[in-house]
Design brief:
It contains twelve helices and nine strands. It is of the alpha+beta class. The chain has a domain of 212 residues: Lambda Exonuclease, Chain A (Alpha-Beta Complex). Helix 6 packs across helix 7 and helix 11 packs across helix 12. The protein binds iron/sulfur cluster. Iron/sulfur cluster binds next to helix 3, helix 8 and helix 9.
């Protein structure tokens, strides 16, 4: 980890930033418990994927381009500024992307720069700023004390650009301040917030703390309910199910043929345990293997239940698709 990232992490832990506001308040974005673990320096169980890290890097690299595009489109003037801390609430902090220089009696404004892929961009064009960004910018206005701001979005592939003006919303700011204060008290008291109620919540499936938070007994078994197979006669579904059926049949046939060819090869290899077949670019080995070691989980459960419970881990719930013949009984 580079020094810059360490410093960035250390700074993040000094208080609540704009991008944390949705985790403190939001019903749909982020999770107070995950934010608490982050703020208290708990090491994640999972690291972000390279793809996720590239998205962070892309956002960071394109921020100056987005700000420059904003200046070009609006003619307003902007400048960089250092992180700000709320005077009355020192746990509230903000890294303003740019300060928009004052143009009238409303004073300076807050410019928040984002990048978004085509579908997210189109969604914002149609529906405006998403809830978590609204909370983020109101948090920023609370810390700076400013009255207004602009939210600029750059779509990096087609280079589309748009911006929204937003205004200070005193009622929402009061809620943000209260909730963030309550959350920060919990961080200081070491009181960990509750888990999200639904263990299969989409946020949990991607959370970097999911193993420790949702392990073994914390992951309830998914209840099996009796399925009702509702007839569907749409042509698209008919074609897809037909394709899968044909592919399954071909796979079964190929598996049976492969088994026959393997048996013939084993006979031809005789006592030899390894051969090379240069014409096919393959090596083949046929050797005796030790039997794999397996735990007798049922015996462990019966004889050492506490030990079994301590080390038992349930995998995360996931959806599985199976296809049966109409008259076949489900496994
Ligand atoms: S696993 Fe779920 S409940 Fe636990 S911290 Fe992550 S998002 Fe929150």
């Amino acid at each position: 980890m580079s020094q810059t990232q360490e410093e960035w992490l250390a700074e993040r832990r000094l208080g609540i930033g704009g991008s944390d506001a949705a985790s403190v308040l939001g019903e749909k974005y982020g999770c107070p418990r995950a934010l608490f673990l982050d703020k208290t320096g708990v090491e994640p169980d999972y690291f972000h994927t390279e793809g996720e890290l590239n998205l962070f890097r892309r956002g960071h690299a394109l921020e100056p381009i987005c700000a420059a595009r904003f200046v070009e489109e609006t003619g307003m003037r902007v400048r960089r500024m250092a992180a700000r801390v709320s005077q009355n609430r020192p746990w509230m902090r903000v890294n303003v992307d740019r300060c928009i220089l004052s143009v009238d009696e409303d004073g300076p404004g807050y410019l928040e720069c984002k990048t978004a892929n085509e579908s997210v961009f189109a969604d914002m064009q149609a529906h405006g700023m998403p809830e978590h960004y609204i909370l983020q910018v109101q948090h920023g206005l609370s810390v700076t004390g400013w009255k207004w701001g602009e939210f600029a979005i750059l779509e990096p592939y087609t280079f589309q650009f748009m911006h929204f003006r937003f205004k200070r919303d005193e009622a929402l700011i009061a809620v943000v301040q209260d909730k963030e204060e309550a959350f920060w008290r919990m961080v200081q008291a070491g009181e960990i917030p509750a888990k999200l109620p639904d263990f299969a919540d989409d946020r949990c499936t991607k959370c970097v703390y999911r193993r420790g938070c949702r392990n073994a007994e914390a992951l309830p078994k998914v209840k099996r309910t009796k399925k009702v197979y509702v007839p569907d006669t749409t042509p698209e579904i008919d074609i897809l199910v037909g394709n899968i059926k044909q592919l399954d049949a071909r796979l079964e046939e190929a598996a049976a043929l492969k088994e026959i060819e393997r048996t013939k090869l084993q006979i031809l290899m005789g006592d030899r345990d390894a051969i090379a077949v240069p014409s096919q670019g393959k090596k083949v080995s046929y050797t005796l293997q030790s039997g794999s070691l397996r735990w007798d989980a049922q015996a462990l459960d019966a004889e050492k239940p506490e030990l079994a419970a301590k080390y038992k881990r349930r995998g995360e719930a996931h959806k599985v698709m199976r296809m049966y013949d109409m008259n076949e009984v489900e496994a």
